[in-house]
Amino acid sequence: MKRIVILGGGTGGTMMANRLVRILSSDEWKITVVDRDDLHVYQPGLLMLPFGQYRRDELLKPRSSLLDPRVELQLHELDRIAPDESKVFLRSGEILHYDLLIVATGARIRPEATPGLTGEGWRETAFDFYSLEGALALEEKLSRWEGGRVVVNIVDMPIKCPVAPLEFAFLADAFFTQRGLRKKVEMVYATPLEGAFTKPRASAAFGNMMSQRQIEVVGDFALAEVDGENRILKAFDGRELAYDLLVTVPQHSGAAAIQDSEMGDEGGWLPTDKHTLQSLHFPNVFALGDATNLPASKAGAVAHFQSEVLIVNVLRFIEGKPLLPDFDGHANCFIETGYGKAMLIDFNYETEPLPGRFPLPGIGPFTLLEESEVNHWGKLAFKWIYWNLLLEGKDLPLDHRMLMAGKWA
Fold this sequence. Notes:
Blueprint: E1 2-7, H1 11-23, E2 29-35, E3 40-41, E4 60-61, H2 63-66, E5 72-75, E6 78-82, E7 87-90, E8 95-97, E9 100-103, E10 108-109, E11 126-128, H3 132-144, E12 148-154, H4 164-178, E13 185-190, H5 200-212, E14 215-218, E15 223-227, E16 232-235, E17 240-242, E18 245-249, E19 252-253, H6 256-260, E20 285-287, H7 300-318, E21 331-338, E22 341-347, E23 356-360, E24 364-368, H8 373-390
Parallel strand pairs: 1-2, 1-9, 2-5, 9-20, 11-18, 12-13, 12-18, 13-14
Antiparallel strand pairs: 3-4, 6-7, 7-8, 10-19, 15-16, 16-17, 21-22, 23-24
């Protein structure tokens, strides 16, 4: 019997396992998912936890409950991969042979990589919301905080969900306003990017919103170290930012096993063909989601669009057919802006976010590059879609390609 091994039981890995097991004959193929634990976290919800908008139990489910019963789930730490031998080595000592490998190991946050960040003041005056523990600790802090200088800082790029830091700043502004604290709070958004976002048009729109809400944007701020005792961020160019409360988006990297196996680049990301999703160096290895080095957003919607292309290319590879270069970098993101509203952006490798209507041209119901209550409800509805449709690998009425219909320059 032949075997497909999927490394990672997160969004991308779960979708691919559930799709493949329905298509491939169980008499010929065994689908195995490897992950370190049986806890699947709805990561978009971590943004909402600090503001009391979600409960912890709403964001967690066992991985085993989300996978088709025909999928084998191996709950072990990944040790290393030997791609030239088509083998995966687990910390338990077990060796998995594969005919085809799908890398969906995601991204890991590394706050310890920034000097001083996890030292004095960590989880007291400095917090992250990219981990469950960090988001819960920040929720407790905000519930009793009485004001001061808040700095939201992105340490480096790339990061998971590039719009999440923006969302945090907007939601914090609304949170402090609704609690009657906004006049007692000074807000700073410090980013290594030139402006508020990577794409010029969206960056200008978000920058204007920041200005209107009296959130100072400090661009080109490359963090060198954190002085937790004196609550100061120090940049490589000598600039310093003082804070009373630091909300950090820590440095990200690929999985340690990818680095240890010498399969990744210097950041631990797997070099991947940006259109076919095949490894650049190992023909029977494919990847999707945050694990790749693609110049696309590391977000769940992107993993979904990639899965539409990857399922076709995996089947074509098995059949000995040429792969299709069909992934265009499509990303689709709701951005919570506070006060019951949200924005929506839709873009790909070549085209930046444009105004318009989505998904139906001229009708919507969602507006692009514009705040609306409908967008906010769309963001909230995504949680149900995620648990009940997306992870099951069901078809959604969205094209994996970015379409220009309904948009205008």
